[in-house]
Structure formats: C-alpha cells, structure tokens
Batch of 2 targets.
Target 1
Amino acid sequence: MDTIVVIGSGASGVHFALTALRKGRRVLMLDVGHTASEAVRPTDSLNELKRNLPDPVDYFLGSRYESLILPGRTGEYYAFPPSKQHVFKHRPEFQHRASGFAPIYSFGAGGLAEAWTGGCYPFNDSDFKDFPFGYQELAPYYAKVAANIGITGTNDDLASVFPLHGGLMEPLDLDEHSAALLETYKLHREYLKEKFGCLMGRTRVAALKRDMGKRKQCSYCGRCLWGCPSGAFYTPSLTLDECRTYPTFQYVSGLYVDYFRMDGTSKVNCVVAHSANGQTHEFPASSLVLAAGPLCSAKIFLESIHRESGETPQLRGVMDNRQILMPFVNFRMLGRRWNPNSYQYHQVAIAVERGGNYLHGLVTTLKTALIHPLVQTLPFDLGTAISLFRNVHSALGMVNINLPDHRRDENYVTLDVNTTPHRLAIRYRPRPDEPKELKQTISTFRKILWKLGCFAPIRTVHIRPMGASVHYAGTFPMRDKPAPLTCTKYGRSHDVENLYFADGSTFPQLPAKNITLTLMANATRIAEEAF
Amino acid sequence: MNTTQLERECLTYTQYLIGQMPSPYVVNRYLDFHQKLDTMTSLRFDAFDEFLVGVSARGAFWASMTDSYASVFRKDSVVRKKLVVTLALLECAAPSFEALDEVEVRSPMVTSISLAWRAAKYVFLLGSAAVVFTPVRVAMVFSWKPRAEPVLER
C-alpha cells in the first residue's frame, strides 16, 4: 500500500489524515510537533485553581513573566498564556522577512488552532463565489467535521448567513451578559436589519454541550483562555490522538521539513527533513500533502523549486482577514456580579451585510481574562481604575470584527535566497480604500452597539496588523483550468503531479468568516474525493 | 537589590490597590520578579523614577499620589510598572484575587454616581500631585547626569 506523506498536524492536516485513514490508506505525518504539558488539576474551576495551585503566578503569568503586560508595551491587549506558549515556540531554521504583514507561525502539534477561539462558521454560496464549487458540495463535509469534533449552533437569525449543516449540537448555556445583548437585539431587530443590514444570534463553536466519546461536556469551569482541561473544547491535537489509534498511521515529530525532491517527471519522490540535532532524514513519498499552513507550505514548495530549478517564483495573492477589536461597555450590566464559571469565548455573533460585503463580528463578554492589561490602559491612577473596573467588569465586552480579503497580485510570498538559511519573504499592501472601509466599519459597529445599549470608546478601538488573524490563504488557488502555481479543485498542484495542498493555500478568496471549519471540511473533501 | 525596600514597596502597593496586606507568596513573587534579569531590563531608572518609587513606598497615600501623577505625566514610569506587576500578582493568587473580583451590587444609576465621585477624587489628587511633583521633576532635569550603564539593581 502506498504511503501518503502529510506535512503538518494542524486543523487541515489532521482532518485530511483521519479521512484517509478511515478509507484504509497509510499515512505518514511529519511535524515539528511541540507539545503542551498536561492539564493541571483538571477538575478545578478557575478560581479553585487560583486557590489550590502551589504557584498560581507560574501558571497564569509564566515562570519568566512572559504573559505579564507592562505599561509601555505596544501591540495586542493580551499576551498568550503560558499554557499555550508551545503553540508559538519557534524553530530557528524558519526565518522570514515581512513587509506590511506580521505573520504568526506554529510548530506545535495541532498547529495554530491549538490556540483558537473555536469559531466554526460554514461559508455560504456568496463566500464560495471564486471557488470551483459551492456550499452544497461542501455541506456533507461540514456535517462530517461537526460529527467528529462537536459543534454547537442553532437555527436563529444567523442561519441565513451561516448555513445549517448537519451534525450541530444544541448551544452552550449563555452567560448573563450575552443573554442581555440578545434580549436587547430582539427589541431592535427590525431597525438593526433595516438600517445596518445587521443580524445577531448564537455563535457556532467547537465545544461540547454533551459528552462525545471520551470527551466530557463543557463544565463551565471558566478555564477556556488557559486551555480546556476536559477536552470539551476542540483542538486539532484531539484528532491527532484519534489518528494515532490507527495502525496505518505513523506520526514522526521533532522534524523540520526542508524540501521535497522530484524525479525527472515532475513528481515528488522524496521528502527531506532534519531533526533538532541537525541529522537529515529522507522519506520516500508516492503522494505528498502540504498542510503546514499557507506560509510554511509555501516555504517548503519554494525551497524545493529553488533546489530543482534555481528559480524563485512569487506566489501571488496571499490573503488574511483584517481584524478590528472594539471594546465596549453595556450600560445595562453595570454594577452587576459576573460569573467566572461560564464559557469564555464568543457566544454571540453579529453579521453585517453592507453593499454586498459581509462583515463578521464575534462578541466576547469579558469575564475571567486577566485584568491588569486592561486596567492599566484606563486614564486614571490604578486605584481608581480598579474601582471602576470592578463595577464595569460585568458590563465589559469586546467585538472582534473580521473583514474579507481578496487575492491581489501585489501581495505575495517568495523566497529570499540571499541569506542562509533562505528566508520566506512576504509582502502585503492593503487596498488603497481600506482606511475608508475601516472607518465605515468602525462607525457602523459603534452605532449597532449603541442601539444595543452599549458604548464603544473610540480611543480603545484597535486595528490589528495584517497577519494577526492567522487566516492566511490564497497562495495556490484552486482553478478549474490548469495554470502555473495553482491547483485543481481537489488541491492537486498543476505544476507537480503528486503534490497536494490541503490547507488554506488553495482558497481563491477569503470571506470575513473564520476559516477553520472550512479548512477542516475542505481537507476532508480532498482526502475523500482525491485519494 | 535591596530586599527590604522591595518588600516595603510590595506591602504599600498592595494596601493601595486592594486595601489588604499581601500574602507571603505575593511578596516572594514580587522579589522574584525583580531578580529576573529579563524583566528587570524593562525597569530602567532615572533619578526622577527613583524619586517616585522612593516616595510611593512611604505609604498607600503616597502611592496613590505618585500613581495619579504618573498616570498622566509618566505613563511608562518604573513606579507604574511596579504597580502593574503587583496588580498582576494579586489577581493570580488567593485571597487577593477575590478582593479584585468583588462587586458592590447596585443599580446602574448608583454605580454611575459612585464612579463619577471616584473620578472627581482622582482629578483632585492629580492636581495636588502635579503641584508637588512637577517642581521636583524640573529640578531633577537640570541636575541629572546620565549614567554610563542602565541601572538594573538598586
């Protein structure tokens, strides 16, 4: 039996692998694969953890205070918690040079989605406009993924933009603030729809309302931000564990894949990797599936082509969702108690359809996140800021707004061969009219929030740099007609016969919705239909 | 590193921030933070920073005075950083996190009035702090000489 070599254990790689294994195929997965430490005191709630851990600062801030945010630091509101640092642990061999783009990589087992927020939003036909297939073709795979990982959702106003695929579980219990927002929305539904094209409803999240196999239902322990201790919240390493139960699956971690080698007929015949001690390993491959994420997959492809031909092509059309973070205060929730024992990520979504453009907003009601990064940004002394924060804590929320992106030739990745090791070079420029669009978007969402009884201070709105959303896509777009540096609708390269892309590289457009569910469904589709 | 001075800072800042004494664990962690070189590199002092830290450690009132001043005129100052470190330690550990999470349940109107009163107090304290500290700062600007190496320990 031929072995399919898969590179990368992220959301795409593990769903490709699991589907291929279920079809009886033999799979070899190569990965750097940094792993997390075991969950500590898995039955404790967040507050119990603070009481019971011998060294809670080590857990929440890190042994070297790496998650502590001090005044003067620029950039994001929060640092990643110590329990998720393995996701972003670097490999020195991987170097990049970026202009207009701040890329984030993962060499962790399970990839970037080990630190995701669980949003599972199916694309609709409008989102698939540039794809060589539509929603109906992917719907069965959305349902398969939902059945595998557990996705909650319901039939509400958002069903018109988030198609109702099979396999959905009933939603998690709402926290008080999210419930209040939805109640207010019901009072103003017609106005919001008419005036802003705004719909609201429950999010779709990869967290269990009911037990699923060995995974227990969400216990509302409030520890989501530091890593779910019970497996109720899905991450790809759970699917990686499932793959490992197949005798035809081999997972080799600790390897950094450098390039693939081709025979004279433009076919991959071997993958070359090396371990941390510098030892080189070669793996014969009858089919190679790149699922390392668009940037790392591009690096492997470009390095391979450069070694074969001396060429350094530009992979044009790299995309990412621009994100806006908009903190707000809900007047109705002022001075109330807040419950730390609740689900911590988005429970409410806001969809805005404006001039044929879809904007995707996810509302997080702040509960157990550390307060010191926010308190220090208030325009008071810390004593006053704490007093204020205590009273507005239950009323605080944040909308994370995603904007769509489209492939444009001026945005590309290529290989910088003037350094050793070679670097990935990324160039991104936003559309010239982006500032206007951002201004309009911010204004629209502030007005929507105001109608919902919330105030979003303009000075606290944060426009994240390109690259921060880690929804990278578009470097090897699916095309019906063969063209260089593109792939078929089944992810097969038009340039190299037995080379497949199973990650976001193949997306010819990037809607505003979080792409992880579609990545998983598309990888499942490719494994099912092309292998 | 002057451990006694650091302990006094931790004690004073905790009293200022949550009105309690710090647990021995928080004090130890505060000392540990100052021992770690990589975090200390972000705490570079100049003479006025040193002055503010010294004054702030005298008691909760002085901590609030220096913090009010720093919140406007010296946002990234060492005293502000030390206060944020203390806050971060307090929110991670029992029983101090409970003091930070505590909410007085009141109507939105009463809450708003109370917050407005607190803000007014802040404005008054800020004005007073500006009167006290600005002349000191001006005097130090004229008398301060840069050191050859960043000061990592005091």
Target 2
Amino acid sequence: MPVTPRIAADEARDILPASTPQERLRNFCIIAHIDHGKSTLADRMLQITGIVEDRAMRAQYLDRMDIERERGITVKSQAVRMPWQVDGVNYALNMIDTPGHVDFTYEVSRSLAACEGAILLVDAAQGIEAQTLANLYLAMENDLTIIPVLNKIDLPGAEPDKYAAEIGQLVGVDPDDVLRVSGKTGLGVEDLLDHVVRTLPAPEGDPDAPCRAMIFDSVYDTYRGVVTYIRVVDGHLKARERIDMMSTGAHHELLEIGVSSPEPRATQGIGPGEVGYLITGVKDVRQSKVGDTITTSVRGAEDPLEGYSDPKPMVYSGLFPIDGSDYPVLRDALDKLKLNDAALLYEPETSTALGFGFRVGFLGLLHLEIVRERLEREFDLDLISTAPSVVYQVLMEDGTEVEVLNPSDFPVGKVHEISEPITKATILVPSEFIGAVMELCQSKRGSLGGMDYLSEDRVELRYTLPLAEIVFDFFDQLKSRTKGYASLDYDVSGSQVADLVKVDMLLQGEPVDAFSAIVHRDKAYNYGVEMAGKLKKLIPRQQFEVPIQAAIGSRIIARENIRAMRKDVLSKCYGGDISRKRKLLEKQKEGKKRMKNIGSVEVPQEAFIAALSSDEGDMPKDAKKK
Amino acid sequence: MNDLSVYIHVPFCAVRCGYCDFNTYTATELGGGGSQAEYPANAMREMDLTLAEDRAAGYEYEQVATVFFGGGTPTLLPADDLVSMLDHLRRLIPLADGAEITTEANPDSVTRASLSRLAAGGITRVSFGMQSAVPSVLRTLDRTHDPEKVPQAVAWAREAGLDVSLDLIYGTPGETLADVETSVKAALACGVDHMSAYSLIIEGNTAMARQLRRGELEQPDPDDMADKYELVDDLARADGLSWYEVSNWARTPAQRSRHNLAYWKGTDWWGIGPGAHRHRDGLRSWNVKHPSRYARMLAAGEMPLADSEQVAGEDRVVERIMLELRIADGLAVDVVPEHRRPMLAVHRDRGHLEPEALQAGRAVLTRQGRLLADAVIRDLVP
C-alpha cells in the first residue's frame, strides 16, 4: 500500500529527540492477544508514518527473533518513535511493544508504566481473550487511557457489532466509539493515529527535577552488549553522562543514547516524557534490570520510581541433555540465554535417572517452553524436562523452614505444614461450557471468586487455583473440555497451606528421583497408580522381578510388578558364523550402555522420556486455538 | 599340531522352508559350475586350496577329529558324493581313530540303501531334521516329511550302525505345549542318544517374518518359549539325557557331538562350501555365498573367500565367554575380566550359575541361567 507520510523527514525539526516538548509526545502500547494482529498493525503504523519505506517493509518488522516470528509471539518489547501530524502540529509518538503473555506480567506492567495510554486491540472475529483482559485490567490500574479498537474488520467472519458491544462494556465506552481497523489493509489506521494524539494525555514529568528514567526492557545484543530501553520521567539524560542504577547503586558510563525509529539512532540525549535506549557496555541483563530507575551520578534523584521488583521464578523444571555428553553444551547455552533473560535462574542438578542437568527456574510454563525451544533450536540440544514443579514452603515440626524447588529435595523429618503458591485465574469461555470449566476447576482444588457475563454468550470466571494444579495439566484439560474455546490468564497471588504429600516412585525399593512429585493427599493415590502403570509398560523386563511402588514416606500406596524376563538367549549357532554372533552381542551391549541403572534395574532412557513427556502440560498459547 | 574339524556346507534343498535364512538354493541347475552335480568337485578343490593355504601359513593338522555335512540338505546329493568328498578329505589329512563323521538329513531324503551306503563310506552319525511330530506344526514350518517316517528312518540308520541325533524346533507359531510334549516324546521313543532342540528364531528376511508382519502368524511369546524349553529339558532328563550345550542333550558324555562342541570350544575348523565359515587360531573367514560365484573363484584357482577378520585381544575374550559359557563344562572364571568377576556371584545369587561349580572356579549355567545365557554373557564380557 503506497503511503505519503504526513511529515517529510526535514519538517520534523520541532520534534527532535531530547528537545521535543512534552505536550508534543504521546506514549502508548498495544494490548492484544497473540494473532489478534498486533504486529501487523504495528507494521502498518511504521509504513503510514513513513519511518519504514515500503520496499524495506517485511512482515512483523519488530519481532526480532525467528522463534517469535514463527510462533507469532512477541517476547521482548521494544519502543519505536514515529512522527505524526494532526491539525498541522507535529507530534512524536512512541509505540512500546508489550509482551503479550501470561508469564511476563511483570514485564508487561513495566511497559504499561512507560505509557500514558493503551490501544486495546481485539480480533473482530474472536472477541477478547483472558490474557488480554488481564492486561487491560493492569492498564486500567495504571490509569492508562484506553483506546478500544477492533481489528481484522475486513475478515468474512468478523462480527464487529457484537464485539464492539463486548469491549465497549469492558472499557466503559459507547460501542459506537470503538474504532475499527484492518491492520492488513491499513483501513482506519490513520484515524487511529489521530485518535492517539487527540485522546491520550501528554507526559507530565518535571523537566527541571533530577533525572529519573525507568527501565522497561533490557536486551542483550551480541555486538553491542546490553541495550536498555528507558522512559525518562523527570529531567534529562545526556550523552556521555555517568548514570546510576538505583536498585544496586552501580555506576555506568553512557556509551550511547538514542531512539529507535525503528532502527536505533544515537541522539544528544533523551528528554522528559521521551522513550529511547541506552548502552553502557554491560554484558548481562542482570546489570540493567527491568523496573529499575536510572538517574545521573551527578545531582541524581533521591528516590527511585515506584514499582520495581526482582523477577521471581514460579515454576521449576529439571532440564537434562538426552545425550549425557551434551552437558557442557547445555551449560554454555544457559549461560548465553541468561545474558538476555533476567528471569532465568538455574543450578546444576544430578538425577539418578537422567544424569547431569540443571534445575531451572521459570516465570511460568510459557517461559519454560520458550527457553527449552531456544535451547533445542539455537544450540542443537535434545533435552528432556522433568514435570514442572512450583516452590513449596515446608515448615518442619522443629520450626525450621525449607524452600523446596525440587520434589526430590523434599526434607526428611517431621513436617508441620506445607504452603503452596496460589493464583488468581481468569477464564473466558462461551457460556455453554460454564459447567465443564467449573467441574474442572473444582477437581483442581479451585474456589470460585466471581463470574460475569461479558456478553450474552461469553462469561468471565474468576478462580483461586493452586499454581501446582495449573502447571500440571490444567491447560490441556481446559482445552479439551471447552473444545479449545476457553482462554486463561493467571497471576500468582500468595500462598496457602494445603494437605500436600510427596509421592516417591520406587523401582525395586530405590526411589527414581525424576518421578517424585508433591501432590495433594487426595490425589496421591491416583498419581501413584497412574505412574506405576506407566512405568510398568515402559520398563523392559529384567533378569529378576522388579516391583514398582508408589510411596508416601514409608507407606506404599500403589504397586505393580514387572515380571522377571525368562528367556534371553539365541540358541542358533549360525553354522559357525561366530563373527555374526559377536556382532549381535556387541549391539546388545551398546543398548545396555544406553541404559540408566536404578539400583540394579536397567532402564532405557527412552522409558524415562516417555514417562515424563506424556502428560506434560501444554502452553496457554494453544488454549485459544480453534 | 592339533586336531581339525571340517564343516562341509551343501547349499541345496528340495524346498525352502519359510523360517530358513541359511545359504541354500532349490534350483538344481545353477550357472558357472555351481550346480548340484558339480558341487563335490568344487568342494574337493576348495579342500586342496585350504590345505595349501594352511601350510603356507605354517599350520599343519595331524588328523581330522570330526566332519559335519550340513546344509541345506546334504542327503539331497547322492550318498556316493558325500562319501567321495570324505575320501578326498582323508587323502589330504588322515581321519582320527573314532572320528565323528556326521551328516544332516531330512527324514524323507534317505532310504535304507542310502543310509547303509553312507555308513559303509565312513559316515558314523546322522542328524535328522525332525523338527516336530505334529503335522500342523510341520506345515507351518513348510516341512514336507510325514512325521511317521521318522522312526523308520531312525531304525534304518541304527541298523546301518550309525549314531542318530534328532533335531527339533520349538516355538513355532501356533504350537502348543502339548504339541512340544508330543514331539519330544516321539523323538525319545525312537531311542536316540542325542537330541537338539532349537527355539524358532524368525529372521527378518524370511517368508515367515513377512507372514508375521502381515499378522498371519502370531508373534512368539518369550515366556511361552521358556515354558517349552523347560518342558524339553524335563522330558529329556526323564529319559536319561542331559544337556551339554544350551540346545543339545546327550545320553552320555561320549555321545555328545564333538563337532558341535568344537564351535563352542573355539578349536580350528575348515568351512568348505558356499557361505561356509572357518576358524584358524583367531582368524575367522567365510566364503562367498552363491554357488556359481563360489565355483567360478575356485575354477580360477582362488580361495572363494568373501571376507575375514582376525579376532584379537579383548575380542577373543569376548568370544570365549560368549561360546564357552554355553556348554555344560562351563567357563573358567579367570577368563572373565577382573572388573566383571563380581557379577559371577550376582548371577549365582539370582540362580543363573551353579554354586558348586563356581566354588570350583567354573561358571556353569543353571537351567534358569541357560534361558538367560545372553543376559549373563553381557554382564561378564569386558
């Protein structure tokens, strides 16, 4: 679509970085569910404002990593500065791209905090999804001005009137005031940009106060080190200044400061209300943390901006290379990913079943999935991950408290009580599935917090659910019980004491660490029976009978037997072909080498893999596929 | 020097059985001098070349201790052919006193006259491929003989002064335990002093494997195989036979097949005929498989070898453990590498090795251990 930008490049002198008055700035983000068209809309904005030429345009311009583009996920946010003219006045618009996913709530909240307004973008054929709703609530709590927009109105299946009513009600506007666009054709996008200028408030920082800038993203770049994205709230940041990270007090030299438009361009500085990037030469995103406040070393601010917190892993899983000799590769790969992922925590773990690997902490299941996929794809690793586990606080009778990240590290001794993290979960579902969802949540120890009709046939259900239940197989179940129509969002919101027990799986009396699980007492028996049955099917017969037991402490709750193998001999002599016999033996021995020994039981690694992978929880991204 | 064993492979059959993956051909006419009629001359030429090669390599054998005509179906050739091959051999290297000279035979490929001709020509022992006494089982195996002919053939052989062994196959798809009992009892009722019983192994490249894949036959069950093996062993023992190799039973030590034992004990043997394997002091070599190619190479004065390997070092230890553990005399424990020796006690405690024998320094399989011989071997090899 050929477009003539409203502002020619040489006419934009009154909106140059570091010297644009705050009233000519508009900072906004787009809140949308994946594949509701956020990236396509962003592409159109880049084109219409003229900062990307038509011929340089490529789909989903801002999504940098292949994996993001393929999965339609924006993992890392970025900011783009775009010129726009309304009523003959030039404005600089900063579009801050937010991560659209359940695990990145904290990053989303920091992106939102960098904006005055948000475009709520909803697919006109699908309506709002649970995660979008959650982010909308987050934006409203941050007092952002919301611009509701229906996208994909050119699609044959679009029902703009229906969904305009739905989101109008959510945002509190008349359905007629819901804008309608097509990111694909560009229809309505100019109007939308005008609307951004007219309805969003300008930033209101104090230009004369000591500088305070909030980090809303931090990205590792192989060539430049860490690129930190900031929103200046008060004062100015100038090139070549020394800056302080207020959470740690660390000093850094500013090597470069600039804006992205959309390619990075160095500037003399960044002024109040503006958005840009800076480079200090640090090599690890942990030294430039999202949410932290930057100030100048000289005449710096006394108090940081509000809202900073350290990322905290909520879900842990063991990652093991299928080929044990890949362990160093996995270690190096994690070290590299860590540079770009402040939330990624890991430490070495040794499992009798799976060998050497790492216990890795993640923000949630999607984070786990993304990290795992990157490890496999970018570092060519074959990995096995153990069932995701949450963090339990175990209070012992003697008053000591133990944090358990790994069921196999569960303390021995008398346990007084165990606390588990709980979540506030929001489920959006067509009303015909209310019963099915309630039944599921009930069985997952959920308690209903409330229920609202978003429209005649769509319902928002609010539950308190243990995080452990969500990471187990909740998504799969939700998906299958609602034919894929339900969407889910959850946020960890504290903890509760629960009647939890650790179930061990024993092979011939030896615990198999990879299969220990902490489950609710009512479900321990089911877990034990199911796991024992599965292992019986997967573990080949041995020279002796092998009991498989599920145990809580010393109490056996389920048992299966693998009968002893009775025949393992080739009686044929192959007419003196001893070489063939020896080769057969060598082949068998190779097979034996690939076995893991649990006590004297030889288990093929494939059996562990099969037992661990069959009920792996699926990702929320799939929960909405129709 | 030591004694020699000689295996002579006769690669011809009247029909190919569905389970068979041996090197055998049903056509009587094969080009390039590979036909049945030309076979004895080829085999004799190969004996000449082998002798010359042994000598060149510094190996000379005093006498031939055992000869075994296997196949294929050796008795598909006229008895005189077998005899003339044997005569040729003994002209090259003398036969030992009391040498064991065996031929395999199909019960329906012999007559009273042919058996007596074989005996007269120096054959001392015949091993009949009885396989089963149950017609439905024989049909599944594609065996053409009438089971009732077996006692007759055994009687003729004994009349001719030949020692007799009967070969059985157990574990044919569809075979019941009762069928196995019928077969073993029928074999023992013939009054034999030696019996072999092999579990059916369905190799991937056979007609039977294709039937299995198509679901026309039921997959053999290892527990069922174990039950059948134990039944064979029970019946043999009740009749006064005892095992001397996993799949072989004899009434007295003297009636054990010395040729068979030569393979497991790792002595030297010649392998004459297409696809045959030979062993000389760690050098294992084998012939090309096709009779025509075999014949052409011999005609050109070449040894008809396909390939060879020199087994040395650790591999020789592997072979010794793999072979000697299968016989009733067992394996001297000092053959087992030191770091593997603790496994001997483990297998004794699991009931796989005889405690007294182990005490005396030999690893001897129990019956349970014989069924798990490969698993035990895997635990003992370097």
